[in-house]
Write a structure and sequence with these properties.
The chain has 485 residues and is α/β, with parallel strands linked by helices. 45% of the residues lie in helices and 15% in strands. The chain folds into 2 domains: 268 residues, 3-Deoxy-D-manno-octulosonic-acid transferase, N-terminal domain (Rossmann fold, 3-Layer(aba) Sandwich); 195 residues, Glycogen Phosphorylase B (Rossmann fold), CATH 3.40.50.2000. The strands form 4 sheets. Strands 7-6-5-8-9-10-11 form a 7-stranded parallel β-sheet, sandwiched between helices. Strands 14-15-13-12-16-17-18 form a 7-stranded parallel β-sheet. The chain has a two-stranded antiparallel sheet with strand order 1-4. Helix 5 crosses helix 21 and helix 14 runs parallel beside helix 19.
Length: 485
């Protein structure tokens, strides 16, 4: 399904005049779109210029913070020029193309069942994947080594226009919620269809977009399909201005891509490499934010007094915090085994009488397999406000006893469904996390009952990938019909 591609963008010849460069960028399937303005529809010519000014102003305002983070952690530096110019790979060949845009790691990973099924249904189509973050691109390249993967352009008109001309997609599918006006309009101007798949729109995001409904109206009307995760999200898209006949409820693709077999090869290998025995009790705190590692460590220390076989695995959400968390654990008197150390030698064995080391997963993309080790799983991004929670379906699919904090606005319906079935437990703070972990370990039968209810709920939700691809198929067919007409 992957076509030939020049991984490095073609160099720009100094002899090309601006008109020739423009002609090359507007070349689509060998036909120059002569006389067609780049922006179509009422208000389009003014909007890109206004957005460019807004984006430049924001960059100036945020420049001190961005430069500081670039110097301190290297964040934002990689791929900056490619994003700014829209230097997507130059796709060679005339076959139809589906461009998935997934902002980061979670969105990239949920594409697995869609890409697999797309290859089966449309083997003559080429699939490309863009992402915004460095970690997202690394995971995309590792997960989809045969596909074209690249940084998405920043939403400047010149960058989106150039990227669109180089990729030449038939369909642009934005994952979850990526309402970038210039990107969407560039796709429409190039003749591509636009879809938002696995779409979600939280109350907070809805209120923000609603205040911009008038300037965003043209952009929203450019969207051909919204495949929403649930009825509430679908209703909000319609209220924002997406025509109702373009919005459908397909469910969450995240359910379909979930591993539910604890004996899968990756989890099995991890257990061996981390030195865990099947008699160990394992407490995994995953996708943790600053402050949540302390809550997890406190709960672990209290529980291991009565359960000495208990092991703690920490998986921070962001790669730039790996070193800080390791140093913090050491300052607090904990021996630490880092995942990246395993390639250098055997796992550290604690002296007799000493507690076993805390395991720190300092890699990206392995959390899905790590959840398969958990007897009790705490899902981070939920004890501290502002994040909205993380994907609690992954540990639930394995049959772990799932705990999370009160801040889960991004997964409101999932949380309601799990709690209604007594299939997970919400804790208000670090003290309740400590209490609940102790209760689960003291009463394993009750914990197992709750875990089994969670697993049954998740497995019953499968099928969203097929429904989503049915919507994309509709776009594909309509695009093919238009081209043959």
């Amino acid at each position: 399904m992957a076509g030939m591609v020049h991984r490095q963008p073609a160099p720009r010849s100094p002899s090309l005049r601006p008109a020739a460069i423009e002609a090359r960028l507007l070349l689509r399937n060998g036909v120059l779109l002569r006389g067609q303005p780049f922006w179509i529809g009422k208000g389009f010519p003014k909007m890109p210029f206004a957005l460019n000014l807004i984006y430049v102003a924001l960059l100036f305002l945020l420049a001190p913070v961005l430069v500081y983070r670039m110097i301190r952690s290297g964040k934002y530096r990689e791929g900056l020029w490619e994003k700014f110019r829209g230097n997507a790979p130059l796709r060679i060949g005339g076959q139809p193309c589906l461009w998935f845009h997934a902002v980061s790691v979670g969105e990239v990973l949920l594409l697995r069942p869609l890409v697999r099924e797309m290859a089966r249904r449309r083997p003559n189509w080429e699939v490309v994947i863009s992402t915004t973050t460095t970690t997202g691109l690394a995971v995309a390249r590792r997960t989809f080594p045969d596909l074209i993967t690249f940084y998405a352009p920043l939403d400047f008109s010149w960058a989106t226009r150039r990227a669109m001309a180089r990729i030449r997609p038939t369909v642009l599918a934005l994952v979850e919620l990526e309402l970038w006006p210039n990107l969407i309009r560039a796709a429409k101007a190039s003749g591509a269809k636009v879809a938002i798949i696995n779409a979600r729109l939280s109350i907070r995001s809805y209120r923000g977009y609603r205040s911009l409904r008038r300037p965003l109206g043209t952009t929203l009307r450019c969207i051909d399909v919204v495949a929403a995760q649930d009825a509430d999200y679908a209703r909000r898209f319609v209220e924002l201005g997406v025509p109702s006949d373009r919005v459908s409820v397909t469910g969450s693709v995240k359910y379909d891509g979930l591993e539910s077999d604890r004996n899968n090869a990756q989890t099995r290998d991890l257990r061996k490499e981390l030195g865990l025995s099947h008699s160990d009790l394992v407490f995994v705190a995953g996708s943790t934010m600053d402050g949540e590692e302390a809550a997890a460590l406190g709960a672990y220390r209290a529980a291991r007094l009565q359960h000495p076989s208990l092991r703690l695995i920490l998986v921070p959400r962001h790669a730039e915090r790996f070193d800080d968390v390791a140093e913090w654990l050491a300052r607090n008197g904990e021996a630490v085994v880092r995942r990246t150390q395993l390639a250098k030698g055997p796992v550290h064995v604690s002296p007799a009488g000493c507690p076993p080391p805390v395991i720190l997963i300092d890699t990206i993309g392995e959390l899905g397999a790590v959840w398969g080790l958990a007897d009790v799983a705490f899902v981070g991004g939920s004890l501290v406000p502002g994040r909205g929670g993380q994907n609690m379906m992954e540990p639930a699919a394995y049959g772990a006893s799932v705990l999370f904090g009160p801040h889960t606005s991004n997964f409101r319906e999932t949380v309601e469904q799990l709690l209604a079935r007594n299939a997970a437990c919400r804790v208000a703070n670090a003290d309740e996390l400590k209490l609940k972990l102790q209760e689960d370990l003291d009463d394993p039968e009750a914990a197992a009952t709750r875990a089994a209810a969670g697993r049954s709920f998740v497995l019953a939700q499968h099928g969203a990938s097929g429904r989503t691809l049915a919507e994309l198929d509709r776009l594909v067919e309509s695009s093919s019909t238009q081209k043959s007409a």
